[in-house]
Amino acid sequence: MAGTLFLLPCPIAKGTESAVMPPDVAALARTLTCFLAENAKSTRAFLKSIDHPQPLRELQIVEIGHAPDDRAAEEWLRPILDGVDAAIVSEAGCPAVADPGANIIAVAHRLGIRVRPLVGPSALLLALMASGLNGQRFRFHGYLPVDAVERARRLQALERDSRSGETQVFIETPYRSRAMFDAILSACAPETSLAVSADLTSPSEYAVTRSISRWRQAPARPQIERRPVVFSLLAQR
Q1: Based on the domain organization, do 137 and 187 belong to the same domain?
Q2: Which helix (H) or strand (E) holds 178?
Q3: 117, 136, 157 — which closes off a domain?
Q4: Helices (H) and strands (E) in the chain, counts
Q5: What would the pLDDT profile of 161-188 be if each residue is shown by its tens digit?
Q6: 221, 179 in Cβ contact below 8 A?
Q7: Which of 11, 34, 55, 231 is most buried, by the most CB atoms less than 10 A from its CB?
Q8: pTM (predicted TM-score)
């Protein structure tokens, strides 16, 4: 009988394992010996933090990277077909949600492998929960263009789309978070709402929603340099 492919969330912030992981999920993770990891090093650190009972060098940890190759998916899933349970683990948060894994999961379904998502932290959902914006209708866009002109055009398009009542959610890398924040303030209308969320679940957690005009008038910009940020945007209808 084939094994199960578990989708194993891991903490967004270091040292928060006991706070954000249900005990049953951590206990299950400690029974697994096969992992498909976005990043092998961070996965080893995660498994060490939850006191995995086996020596890490004896575990099968396959690094799938940030853009897993569809052609390799069947080979990666072969141990599961042979009866071994395995898990996909991203660097932080939930696999396949703003992180790699969806294409591997699609192949697992095609092969008839049971897929079981586990409970754990998701930066996108936590940010949306804290935003006060429309959580009934929202769309996630991943990363926006790096080029300043293209980024401004995309922000204006997202703002137009949000006038239907659909919250627009996107993320930015730590080293571009300040530039993205400034671009939003420049491109969007004063009455549009902007939620900024960083370091969720950590002691330095930040989650604030203001109109663009209030962000512009604030005496100081949020301290988001070198921090991964989730931005949520909603214009007035």
Answers
A1: yes
A2: helix 177-187
A3: 117
A4: 9, 10
A5: 999 999 999 999 999 999 999 999 999 9
A6: no
A7: 231
A8: 0.91
